[in-house]
Structure formats: structure tokens, C-alpha cells
Design goal:
Blueprint lengths: L1 E3 L6 H10 L9 E11 L8 E8 L10 E2 L2 E3 L11 E2 L3 H8 L3 H19 L4 E2 L12 H12 L4 H8 L2 E3 L4 E7 L8 E9 L13 E7 L1 H9 L7 H15 L4 H5 L7 E2 L2 E5 L2 E5 L9
Parallel strand pairs: 2-10, 6-8, 9-12
Antiparallel strand pairs: 1-14, 2-3, 2-5, 3-4, 3-11, 7-8, 9-10, 13-14
Helix pairs in contact: 2-3, 6-7
């Protein structure tokens, strides 16, 4: 799949030419974690699956206006953090994602932290029962804002509330690395998770101006119609879910799927001065 990125002589074309000539260096990608939160539309057997999506504000430096899943970069505080942990070990996550145990632990912590910051969904539970918590009320919102502002860490939040991180709720799904030509690059690991019982979604206005539960197929159709902007990893993952739903799978079936995770890294090239994005055909990019 080839997608034109701009006009000949434009900003991207100039950047790719500079990279090819060695005038600028390829940025090192930052580790990042993304979480696709799924729910069944209702309790009816065979009900449609919906996925949580956030529309990034126009002020965001990366992908303004795009519909995305909750997530973000791994922070330094996510490395080496001591938290109560319930579920597969960091070594197991690392084996799935091609990462060390230290990086995998940080990715899971970032996934839980970013999901709570951006959507209010907290993948944590009580140590004895493991039952997920329901983070509702002014005190919880104050903790969430403190986490966003950096005055409270994930470890501090869980310790204060007497909770453990529910790593078992996160299902490894995909890994994408931003092309070399982008000025902001990420090594993003994607997780899938079900919306915990009783929890409600509330967006974070500084990063998203709209929160929506969407059928994966509807989101893809909207992108094809030009009414919704989707990044390639987002569109591809939505297509994975849409294919599963079309086969009769619900949330539990999707999360029971053990996927072989292969690194996907699209390439940027200049052809006769025009910049193009090359996406591997085998990944099922739907747009």
C-alpha cells in the first residue's frame, strides 16, 4: 500500500531528502504503550463490539484531530517502579513484545497510567480478590489530575488506594514503529482490554475533545468517507477487530486470541521528489 504524504518540494519531501543526504539524523523511537478498550454494545448474545476512541485536540503536536486509542510514551518514572502486580510477569510480556523484562514492565505501567489519565479507566484491583476497582468521585478525579500533572506517580496512586496493577487484563496485540522519516518516532506496543465492570469513561480535555464508543467497522467506514482521521496502526487494529466481529466473536473471544506479534514498520520514500508512505500489504491495512 502506497500513500502520498505531500507534494514534491514540500516539508516532508525536504525532510526525506535531508535524511537521505545525511544532513539530519533519524530520531530514536521512544517506547510507548497503547490500550484498546473493548466492550459489548449490550448484554444481548452476539451484540456488537465497540472500542473506545478519543479525538486528539487540534493543539496536539502529534496527530492533531486523529481518532486514537488511549496511550502515550513511557515516562522515566515507569521504569523500575515498585507496584503490586497481578498477572503475567514482565518477562512474559517481554517475550511477546520483543523487549527486556525491564522495558516490558515499564510498558505495562505506562499502559495502565496513560489509560487512567486519558479515559478514567483504571486497570487495577484489590489484592485479595483481584476485583477491579471503580474509580468514581471527586477524590478519584483529584488523584487522576495529580497523575496527569506529575505530582502523583502510578505507584503512589496504587499504594494510597491499596491496589495492585491488573496486568492480567492486558492482552498483547501488536507492535508498530514510526517510520524513519517522521520527526517524532515511537516504538508502540498495543494492548487490548475489556472495560472493567462498573467503570465509566471520562476524557481528559487537554488531550481529547471528543470521546466515542464505536463499532470498528463503522470507524473504518467513516475514515474511508473522509469524516474521521485514523493513523495506519489504528486503522489496521480496527480492521482486526472488525474481522473478528464479522466472524461472530465478542469481546471475550477477541481477548482469548493469542496473536503472534510481528514488528510492523512502514517506510517513507521519495519517488521523483514526491514523498510516499509504504505500508506492508500483509498486515491488512483497510484504507
Amino acid at each position: 500500500m502506497r500513500i502520498q504524504l505531500g507534494r514534491p518540494g514540500g516539508k516532508m519531501a525536504t525532510r526525506l531528502a535531508d535524511l537521505a543526504a545525511g544532513r539530519i539524523e533519524v530520531p530514536v523511537p521512544r517506547d510507548a504503550a497503547t490500550v484498546m478498550i473493548l466492550r459489548n454494545a449490550d448484554e444481548t448474545p452476539g451484540a456488537d463490539v465497540e472500542v473506545l476512541m478519543l479525538r486528539r485536540t487540534a493543539a496536539m503536536k502529534f496527530a492533531p484531530g486523529a481518532y486514537v486509542f488511549p496511550g502515550g510514551s513511557v515516562d522515566p518514572a515507569d521504569y523500575g517502579v515498585e507496584v503490586g502486580w497481578h498477572g503475567p510477569s514482565p518477562e512474559e510480556f517481554g517475550a511477546r513484545f520483543g523487549a527486556t523484562a525491564e522495558v516490558a514492565r515499564a510498558l505495562v505501567c505506562a499502559a495502565v497510567r496513560e489509560t487512567f489519565e486519558e479515559s478514567g479507566v483504571l486497570l487495577a484491583g484489590h489484592p485479595a480478590s483481584g476485583d477491579p476497582v471503580v474509580p468514581v468521585g471527586p477524590e478519584w478525579e483529584a488523584d487522576r489530575m495529580a497523575l496527569v500533572g506529575g505530582t502523583l506517580s502510578l505507584a503512589g496512586l496504587l499504594a494510597r488506594r491499596g491496589l495492585v496493577l491488573r496486568a492480567d487484563l492486558l492482552v498483547p496485540w501488536a507492535r508498530w514503529i514510526t517510520p524513519d522519516g517522521e520527526p517524532r518516532r515511537f516504538d508502540a506496543r498495543f494492548f487490548a482490554a475489556a472495560l472493567p465492570d462498573g467503570q465509566q469513561v471520562t476524557g481528559h480535555e487537554a488531550e481529547s475533545d471528543h470521546v466515542a464508543w464505536l463499532r470498528p467497522a463503522d470507524a473504518i467506514d467513516a475514515a474511508k468517507a473522509g469524516t474521521m482521521a485514523l493513523l495506519p496502526p489504528t486503522a489496521t487494529t480496527l480492521n482486526d477487530f472488525a474481522t473478528a466481529v464479522a466472524s461472530g466473536h465478542g469481546v471475550a473471544d477477541i481477548l482469548d486470541t493469542r496473536r503472534e506479534i510481528e514488528l510492523v514498520q512502514p517506510q517513507m520514500v521519495l519517488t521523483d521528489g514526491t514523498p510516499w508512505l509504504i505500508i506492508p500489504d500483509e498486515i491488512g491495512y483497510p484504507l
